[in-house]
Amino acid sequence: MGDAERRFRDLFESTLQARLERQARSRIHPIIPGVFFSHASRESRNLFVEGHFYGSITLSQAVAEGLAKFLCESNGVSAKPPEGRAQRLRDKGVISDAALDAFKAIRGTDRNNFHHMNRDVEIDYQKLDARAFECVEGLYAIESEVFAFDTGAGGAISVRHAQYWDIKDGVGAVHLWFE
User: Fold this and answer.
1) Where are the beta strands (DSSP E) in the chain?
2) Hey, CA dihedral for 125, 43, 149, 166, is it positive or negative?
3) HSE on the CB side for 145, CA within 13 Å?
4) Which percentage of the chain shows pLDDT scores above 90?
5) Which of 145, 59, 62 is nearest to 98 (CA)?
6) What is the phi-psi region of residue 48: left when phi exceeds 0, alpha when psi lies from -120 to 50, beta otherwise?
7) φ, ψ of residue 44 in degrees (nearest 5)
8) What is the pLDDT of residues 100-132, one digit of tens each?
9) pLDDT digits (tens, 9 = 90+) for 76-99
10) What whole-number distance in Å separates Cα of residue 148 and Cα of residue 163?
11) How far apart are CA 72 and CA 62, in angstroms?
12) Does the pLDDT at position 1 exceed 90?
């Protein structure tokens, strides 16, 4: 084993316990449609688990914005301007108050600080951990509502909101995540 590999292993092992803790306390909705933001949604949680909080926060905020746009387009709700999409979705009865609160929590008051890396962006590690967790949990809450499903005999999946899934002849592309 070379020096670089040893240093990498030492780093991994020194952070393993914290990673396991973050994985255990964060949740991810197990099945979402295989749409443009599905991989990024999963990656935002992975970044949180790995301790890459800036990436997790920023990506979670971007995914939430893309998800709101997707929901607007899927339900005939105006996606313009981007600010206020979630509120319009709630006003039209597309999402619940809880989902609206999750969208608002993800956006927070710091969206621009993270996306533009403004000089007053948070730098405290514990606060970043908490903020990233809030964002990842917000995505979980939204995805659990809008991509809700039931399982039946033989593990068959029945989606509750078919307009979000591209299903043809009972088959559709999905992004699965089981732990």
Assistant:
1) 31-33, 149-151, 157-159, 167-168, 171-172, 174-176
2) positive
3) 20
4) 81
5) 145
6) alpha
7) -65, -40
8) 999 999 999 999 999 999 999 999 999 999 999
9) 999 898 889 999 999 999 999 999
10) 12
11) 15
12) no
What is the C-alpha to C-alpha distance for residues 178 and 30, in angstroms, rounded to an integer? 6
Q: What is the pLDDT of residue 82?
A: 83
Which two tokens mark 119?
């000089």
Instruction: Indicate whether this model's pTM tops 0.90.
Output: yes
Q: How far apart are CA 138 and CA 103, in angstroms?
A: 7
Dihedral (C-alpha) 15, 25, 68, 172: value to the nearest 10 degrees? 90
Q: How far apart are CA 150 and CA 162, in angstroms?
A: 12
The residue count of the chain comes to 179
Q: Contact, 60 vs 106, CB < 8 A?
A: yes
Burial class (CB in 10 A: 0-12, 13-18, 19+), 115: middle
Residue 170 CA, distance from chain mean position: 26
pLDDT band at 40 (very low <50, low <70, confident <90, very high): very high
